Amino acid sequence: MRMSMAEMKKKCPNLKQNLEHCNCSYTSCDKTALCCQCLHYHRRNNEIPACFFPDDVEKGWDRSFRNFIDTWQDRV
Ligand code: SF4
Q1: Phi, psi for 64 (deg, rounded to 5)
Q2: pLDDT digits over 30-55, tens only?
């Protein structure tokens, strides 16, 4: 049987440390600070997690590859 996100959070030894590095503004997400699940979810959707975007862009919740490229091509 598959573990729920809440159960995974209880077992994750890195949750607190992950949260310190998470800039995601989607506060109702059940994957917050479960970086492995966050990554799998966004990769499945051809997206990139919030922490790869600067805060001002992240808050728009557009996690697409296109937005990632458009954002960083002018900032690096
Ligand atoms: S980046 Fe996506 S999956 Fe990760 S915490 Fe934010 S909304 Fe959830």
Answers
A1: -70, 155
A2: 999 999 999 999 999 999 999 999 99
Pocket probe for ligand 1: among 20, 29, 30, 43, the residue whose CB has the most ligand atoms within 8 Å is: 29
Structure confidence by residue, pLDDT tens digits, 55-68 = 999 999 999 999 99
* Residue 69 maps to a domain: yes
Give every CB contact of residue 33 below 8 A, 6+ residues apart in sequence.
9, 12, 15, 16, 18, 19, 22
Q: Domains in the chain: how many in total?
A: 1
What are residue 47's phi and psi, to 5 degrees? -130, 175
DSSP 30: T
How many residues does this entry show for the chain?
Answer: 76
Please count the helices (runs of H) and the strands (runs of E) in the chain: 5, 0
In a domain, 12, yes or no: no
